[in-house]
Write a structure and sequence with these properties.
Elements (H helix, E strand, L loop, with lengths): L1 E4 L13 E9 L4 H14 L2 E5 L2 E5 L1 H11 L5 E5 L3 H10 L2 H4 L13
Parallel strand pairs: 2-3, 2-4, 3-5
Antiparallel strand pairs: 1-2
């Protein structure tokens, strides 16, 4: 379900580089329990986590709650990158883009002239 990219070299968790997760498909009530376990395991092992959301095709409020949970994990740094259109739409609908604190690249909705 999630592609994981481990940092190279034997680095102790306290000084480990960002661990990268690349979930794909759904980030929804049907997948969030499994993803939560994976994300929490990564957060337990690493101080810094980067989650690439570029392969997310569908997200619901359960997925959004998982994102918020990861961001609020004490003593950890979590960055969401490469937000898929589905993620951007939900963040806009929920007015939570600023709460997550990650840079968002939003396409211009104005029609071309």
């Amino acid at each position: 379900m999630t592609t994981q990219t481990r940092p190279t070299g034997p680095t102790p968790p306290s000084s480990a580089p960002a661990f990268r997760l690349e979930p794909g498909g759904e980030l929804s009530i049907y997948t969030v329990a499994e993803l939560r376990t994976e994300w929490l395991a990564a957060l337990h092992e690493y101080d810094e986590l980067e989650i690439d959301l570029g392969r997310i095709e569908e997200i619901d409020t359960a997925g959004l709650q998982l994102m918020l949970m990861a961001k609020r994990c004490a003593g950890k740094t979590v960055r969401f990158v490469n937000h898929a259109d589905a993620v951007l739409r939900l963040l806009d609908l929920a007015n939570l883009g600023g709460v997550l604190g990650d840079p968002l690249l939003v396409a211009d909705a104005r029609p071309a002239h």
